[in-house]
Amino acid sequence: MLKKNESMIDRMIRIIIGIIILLVGYLYSSWWGLIGLLPLLTGIIGFCPLYALLGWNTCCNRKRCVCREEEPVKKPMKRKRR
Predict the structure, then answer these.
(1) Which of 6, 9, 21, 26 is the most exposed place for a label (fewest CB within 10 A)?
(2) What residues make up the domain containing 22?
(3) Contact by Cβ (8 Å): 48, 40
């Protein structure tokens, strides 16, 4: 399975733009509207091949990574001195 590299906001924007392009292509009876499938599918899947090529990742930030499926690494607890 592909590792997600798009944030939730990025995905929603791609889905909305993809639907708009598809609708405009349909309204104008143009095959160019099929270009809307690209942002729509990448938004649904959550993986962008161009982001992978460029090494970009909008999914993770410094505090937490929501695109990883593994548990976050916890720091070991310090023992109190007596």
Answers:
(1) 9
(2) 8-54
(3) no
